[in-house]
Write a structure and sequence with these properties.
Layout lengths: L7 H4 L3 E2 L5 E4 L12 H6 L3 E3 L2 H10 L4
Antiparallel strand pairs: 1-2, 2-3
Length: 65
């Protein structure tokens, strides 16, 4: 049986934490930033965890994460 392939797009966007959750960065912080408030841009910094309903989907895309 050959090894399963990881989804490379997902591998660049998600990483598993020590507790088994997946962390990712926020969206909407690449362009068209002038109309977004400073508070909104500030809160989009850093990382967040993937929602519980999406964890199984990310898990399937990253079998060895």
């Amino acid at each position: 049986m050959p090894k399963m392939k990881s989804n490379r797009g997902a591998a660049k966007r998600f990483s598993r934490t020590g507790s088994g959750l997946f962390k990712c960065s926020h969206s909407h912080l690449r362009h068209i930033l002038t109309k977004k408030s400073s508070k909104r841009k500030r809160q989009l910094r850093g990382t967040t965890t993937v929602a519980a309903v999406d964890t199984a989907r990310v898990n399937r895309m990253l079998p060895y994460a």
